[in-house]
Amino acid sequence: MTQIQFNNALLGLRDKLHYYALSLTSDSERADDLLQETFLKALTYRDKFTQNTNFKAWIYTIMKNTFINDYRRNVKTKNTFDGSNNDFHLMFSKDKVYPAPDSFYSTKEIHKNINALEDEYKIPFTMFLDGYKYKEIAEKLDLPLGTVKSRIFFTRKKLEKSLNEYSDN
């Protein structure tokens, strides 16, 4: 695909991409920014596009991944300008719910129940709680991905059953 063909194909998708950006952001200005960033990335990484593949899917994937990455970045860095001498302060999330003092017993009880599990369930579940992805757990434990997913699912169900007195709170 020549540079001109690439540019024409990209511009031909502009309206559809803008509509998709609006569906992701629900804001016209943010959608315009997302569209512009998608175009920039597509032009920058033009050489990464493989001939005879779905160009439209490639562009939509760029937009979706850009949106997801921007969203994650914005959630991590909630900074605000407050007019003081210190230009920026890290804000604590206002919608974050901090645990009540009586919930610490529940946490202790949950950990006790997790530690009482058989290793085949406890290890994948604790790895999942520590932030590992299913695929990473499967690779580290040398297990099939489906096995890891089902063990984590069944562990949740076991914990739910054993801790049912806390689920009503």
Question: Can you give a write-up of this model?
Answer:
The longest helix is centred in the middle third of the chain and has 22 residues, at 55-76. The protein is mainly alpha-helical. 11% of the residues are buried. It contains nine helices and two strands, in the order ααααββααααα. It has a two-stranded antiparallel sheet with strand order 1-2. The chain folds into two domains: 1-88, Rna Polymerase Sigma Factor, Chain: A, CATH 1.10.1740; 104-168, Orthogonal Bundle (Arc Repressor Mutant, subunit A). Residues 109-159 form the RNA polymerase sigma factor 70 region 4 type domain. Keywords: DNA-binding, Sigma factor, Transcription, Transcription regulation. It comes from Maribellus comscasis. Residues 14-75 form the RNA polymerase sigma-70 region domain.
**How big a fraction of the residues is strand?**
under 5%
Query: Structural class from helices and strands?
Result: mainly alpha
Please give the count of helices.
9
Helix-strand pattern, N to C?
HHHHEEHHHHH
The appropriate CATH architecture of the largest domain is Orthogonal Bundle
Tertiary shape: elongated
Secondary-structure map with pairings?
Blueprint: H1 3-12, H2 14-25, H3 28-44, H4 55-76, E1 79-81, E2 88-90, H5 103-115, H6 119-129, H7 134-141, H8 145-162, H9 164-167
Antiparallel strand pairs: 1-2
Protein name: RNA polymerase sigma factor
Keywords: DNA-binding, Sigma factor, Transcription, Transcription regulation
GO molecular function, one term: DNA binding
